[in-house]
């Protein structure tokens, strides 16, 4: 079985709930406060571990208390954190989140140590094999992602690139990627056109992403599931209704992590997408991101 090697972000998500969002200059009383593990990279590595693949996280935290707590927490999900660097000159990435009673939110992100992740750090940490799957997102430097993609391609490892937050990636870089994963909004940004609004336009969008260069593309559609394309074939995979939807935070990361785990176990792409969709639909059943991944079923190597 291959490994899932995630190079990416790790944050402390500090969430305060309020009756309504404050106006500029206003002070409000919060109604609850949580500190949680976050960052797309960390979440995806946790999901891959719950899905049963050996999962390695390469990233950076600061030499502060938040960093220590996050490293322990990620490790408790079964992720190998031995290549997670503690950077003496940086603070841990933080997301300051406000959620109102009506469900509106504001988010302020301070990248901190995430902005200091380097491709060299990844190259020094691991030697990928052809069985391994390297997973990237949009929360570390674009040039770092590009260098990692070129390196992964030379080693023969497959890459899953979750372009989130989305940005325009050069076609010569995308041509080296196995699978691009984006949600509807991100698909619109990557393609430079209006975001797909339904399953049919998502199928078109997935095919259009493949035209940009990657071998495969997956467009996730929240409660509507996901659409994938390999340029010839495409398919809409509906979401599963496994129970009441409690919190959709981290659903996309659950899908990416489980998809990567299935690919590391050498599942066919259509089946790996199903595993990803199922993991996403499982993550919405409980509060939080990684905190909601305990229900993800371990996959079996075929
Ligand atoms: P992101 O968080 O990146 O925007 P999505 O919201 O598209 O990602 O969700 C990713 C996956 O999680 C979907 O493909 C689907 O399988 C699952 N999912 C998301 N929202 C729901 C929901 N309300 N009900 C069931 N499954 C969901
Ligand atoms: Na959740």
UniProtKB/TrEMBL annotation:
This is Ribokinase. Residues 2-292 form the Carbohydrate kinase PfkB domain. GO terms for biological process: D-ribose catabolic process. Pathway: Carbohydrate metabolism; D-ribose degradation; D-ribose 5-phosphate from beta-D-ribopyranose: step 2/2. Its cofactor is Mg(2+). ATP binds at residues 183, 220-225, 252-253. Keywords: ATP-binding, Carbohydrate metabolism, Cytoplasm, Kinase, Magnesium, Metal-binding, Nucleotide-binding, Potassium, Transferase. One of its GO terms (cellular component) is cytosol. Its EC number is 2.7.1.15. The gene is rbsK. It comes from Propionibacterium ruminifibrarum. It comes from the Bacteria. Substrate binds at residues 11-13, 39-43, 139, 253. Pfam families: PfkB (PF00294). The active site is at 253 (proton acceptor).
């Amino acid at each position: 079985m291959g490994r899932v090697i995630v190079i990416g972000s790790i944050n402390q998500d500090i969430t305060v709930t309020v009756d309504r969002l404050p106006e500029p200059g206003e002070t409000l009383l919060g109604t609850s406060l949580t500190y949680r593990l976050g960052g797309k990279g960390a979440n995806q590595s946790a999901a891959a571990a719950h899905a049963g693949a050996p999962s390695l996280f390469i990233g950076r935290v600061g030499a502060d208390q938040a960093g220590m707590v996050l490293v322990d927490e990620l490790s408790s999900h079964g992720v190998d954190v031995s290549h997670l660097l503690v950077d003496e000159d940086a603070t841990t990435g933080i997301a300051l989140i406000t959620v109102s009673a009506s469900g509106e939110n504001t988010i302020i992100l301070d990248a901190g140590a995430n902005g200091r992740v380097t491709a060299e750090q990844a190259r020094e940490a691991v030697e990928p094999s052809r069985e391994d799957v390297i997973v990237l997102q949009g929360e570390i430097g674009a040039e770092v992602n590009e260098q990692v993609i070129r390196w992964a391609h030379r080693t023969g490892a497959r890459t899953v690139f979750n372009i989130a937050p989305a940005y325009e990636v050069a076609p010569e870089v995308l041509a080296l990627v196995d699978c691009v994963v984006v949600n509807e909004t991100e698909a619109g940004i990557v393609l430079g056109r209006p975001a797909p609004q339904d399953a049919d336009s998502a199928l078109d969008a997935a095919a259009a992403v493949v035209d940009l260069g990657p071998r495969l593309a997956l467009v996730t559609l929240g409660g509507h599931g996901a659409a994938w394309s390999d340029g010839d074939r495409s398919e809409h995979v509906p979401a599963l209704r496994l129970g009441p939807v409690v919190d959709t935070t981290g659903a996309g990361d659950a899908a990416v992590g489980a998809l990567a785990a299935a690919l590391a176990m050498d599942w066919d792409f259509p089946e790996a997408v199903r595993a990803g969709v199922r993991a996403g639909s499982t993550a919405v059943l409980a509060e939080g991101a990684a905190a909601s991944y305990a229900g993800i079923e371990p996959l079996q190597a075929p």
